[in-house]
Write a structure and sequence with these properties.
By secondary structure, this protein is an alpha/beta fold. It is built from five helices and six strands, in the order ββαβαβαββαα. It is globular and about 35 Å long.
């Protein structure tokens, strides 16, 4: 018998979020929080889940990992603008700071976590705003004059 409120792989239990507890869980988390948006039919999601399970077994004491079912939480996925699975949502201080679609290696996930882990609440807000501006305006090249 399986518990539908969490995903159990070997000894690592990854709790499942729902629309009812998503926002409070994200807001209340002290350390980095990672959400895997997955679907039951998605084999790539299973691959990503295995990678995250490995991270939990390693050294990530301050890391919280959750799953979110694309099959059961469609309205929440629309609100989060998630259009593909697997999707990794990286939160820091209750704010979404990265969204990555597809399967990502343990090294890539760890690199992002290592980048966001030391951020203070103010740094998190600044990085979030910079990311939103880059999306709206596009990444800008340096405005320094060249070779004058």
């Amino acid at each position: 018998m399986s518990d539908k409120s969490s995903v159990r792989q070997d000894d690592a239990v990854i709790p499942a979020l729902t629309a009812a507890n998503f926002h409070s869980t994200v807001k209340d988390c002290e350390g980095p929080l990672l959400v895997l948006v997955k679907a039951g039919w998605c084999h790539h999601c299973d691959t990503q889940l295995g990678i995250l399970r490995g991270l939990l077994r390693e050294k990530q004491d301050d890391l919280s990992i959750y799953t979110l079912s694309a099959d059961n939480e469609r309205e929440l996925l629309k609100a989060l603008k998630i259009f593909g699975v697997p999707t990794l949502l990286y939160y820091r201080h209750g704010l979404l700071v990265r969204k990555k679609v597809g399967v990502h290696s343990a090294g890539k996930v760890t690199a992002i976590l290592d980048e966001i882990r030391p951020w203070s609440p103010d740094e998190t807000k600044a990085h979030r705003h910079r990311g939103l501006l880059e999306k709206l305006l596009g990444k800008r090249e340096s405005t320094k004059p060249s070779g004058s």
